């Protein structure tokens, strides 16, 4: 009788351990491969554990297997390149880093061009485009067939 009781306790603990190991499989997969969506997979696993809705576990398993693309790095490189083209140092064009400067006025034909001062950056000075010298009017886009 004592042997049967010990066997029953060991069997219940072994089945419970197997259940919890299987249940945390998506979370361990996402953690091992350093996924960005690790927290989402962990929350889905907890929701599945407490609600007994297996769809959350399946969604977590699929998210753990999928590599989400990194959009932050290419966008940061594009922003840095745009800042270089504008004549700014990288990171200088961020809104929280800009000083409070009044917006430059747009130069009109009868007004002289603005001088570059310490309050106006070279990238903020209006640029006049050269007038067309070939006498042709504005170009129209070619019609596509």
The gist of it:
With about 140 residues, the protein is mainly alpha-helical. It is built from five helices and no strands.
The fraction of residues in strands falls at under 5%
Distance between the termini: 90 Å
What is the typical, i.e. mean, pLDDT? 77
Main sheet record: none
Binned, the helix content reads 40-55%
Element order: H for helix, E for strand: HHHHH
Radius of gyration: 32 Å
Summarize the structure in words.
This protein is mainly α. It has a domain at about 25-70. About 50% of the residues lie in helices and about 0% in strands. The protein has helices spanning about 1-25, 25-30, 40-50, 55-65, 70-85. Helix 2 runs parallel beside helix 4 (about 55-65). The relative contact order is 0.07.
Descriptors:
145 residues; mainly alpha; 5 helices; 0% strand; rod-shaped
Describe the protein's topology.
Elements: H1 2-23, H2 25-32, H3 38-51, H4 54-65, H5 72-85
Helix pairs in contact: 2-3, 2-4, 3-4
């Amino acid at each position: 009788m004592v042997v049967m009781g010990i066997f029953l306790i060991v069997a219940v603990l072994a089945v419970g351990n197997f259940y919890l190991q299987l249940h945390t499989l998506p979370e361990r997969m996402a953690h091992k491969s350093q996924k960005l969506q690790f927290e989402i997979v962990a929350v889905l696993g907890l929701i599945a554990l407490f609600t007994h809705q297996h769809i959350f576990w399946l969604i977590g398993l699929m998210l753990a297997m999928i590599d989400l693309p990194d959009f932050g790095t290419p966008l940061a490189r594009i922003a840095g390149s745009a800042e270089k083209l504008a004549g700014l140092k990288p990171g200088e064009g961020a809104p929280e880093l800009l000083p409070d400067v009044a917006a430059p006025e747009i130069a009109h034909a009868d007004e002289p061009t603005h001088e570059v001062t310490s309050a106006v950056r070279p990238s903020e000075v209006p640029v006049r485009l050269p007038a067309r010298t070939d006498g042709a009017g504005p170009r129209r886009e070619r019609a596509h067939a």
